Amino acid sequence: MKYDIPLSKPDLTDEDRDAVLATLRGSRLTMGSALLEFEAHLATVVRRPFAIGVSSAGAGLEICLRALCIGPGDEVLVPALSFASNVNAVIAVGARAVFVDCDPRSLNMRVFDAERLVTPKTKAVLGVPVLGNPAGLPELIRFCSRFEIPMVEHASEGLGSTIGSDNVGKFGRLSVFGFGPNRPIAAGEGGAIVTNDDRLAAACRALRNQGRVDRQSFPDQSPDLGMIMTHASMGLDARLAEPLAALASSQLRRLDEIRSRRIEVAAAYTRTLAGHPDLILPNVLENSQICWPLFWVRLSDRFGLHDRDAVITGLHRHDVGAANHYPPAHLLPHVQTLFGTKVGDCPAAESIGDRMVTLPMFTSMTAREVGLVCQALEVVLSRGGVERGS
Question: What's the CATH number where 296 sits?
Fold first, then answer.
């Protein structure tokens, strides 16, 4: 359904469109010069030596786990309050997901709980800056170092976010970005893996292309139908198409501008909604910046799941795009069937997930639009707008 103020909206310039059209006029639609340019550009932005473009963040997560040789019999710590792609990647490689509850302030994995869940079978940690918030990432990587467990950082929502002098995407042994339609850098689809490890980078490059290792090299390192192919291992069809690479690369040039605009939008929300007795707003550390892929509010403890749904429906009636946040991953039906997880396993994630509402956030959002969203939210929350505790 189309709303007057949508949940998200791409911010495309003439330069973005020209970059895409240039690839359509070229001789390659995949694994060409636009991909190489994008990978070099992203590596520079996140200050890591290797970047590997892939078809999606979900594919990137699976590739990372396979590159780390994780499979049946292994366990991976997964944030309970996170998108389904995290646990689905663990399932895809045949490992067992072990869910870690969240910190109520940052929404990120709580290190204290992670420590209690480590076993000799724990082979990786999926570190996720939920909604781009990097709080807790330095502590999480110290925990991983202490236990000598590699962290795969799922930074899809965190490109452009920082904590101290560190970029999100710097913390994992392998880190994954996504460029879906509601991201600050939005190519529609696509993703990338970044790392400091040349051997892991080579493994990821092969895994994204059906395990292919070519015996003949070309100046641009791109595969050609005429070269001699060797498939050294299994892999995925997870190449990043040239038009998507070009679009993402073009937007990366505006990352500072995009971040500044989204910080302004988030600040406008915070100024308007601060002090509302029924709302809990995002907590941002003083030494961090969030690039705000989304903006969310949490209903106070006296509200429940049905109230949250009523708020979302009420916003829709006011022509405002709104949505629930990701359902707790351990309560997804297929996850419960596979791993026997149940309600009560991660109480903080369950309580927060039942009360989170995602509000519109896009780079071109105006102060007037923020004001209209906040006005609609306050009307819906007012007496009679929601049956509290239903």
Answer: 3.90.1150.10
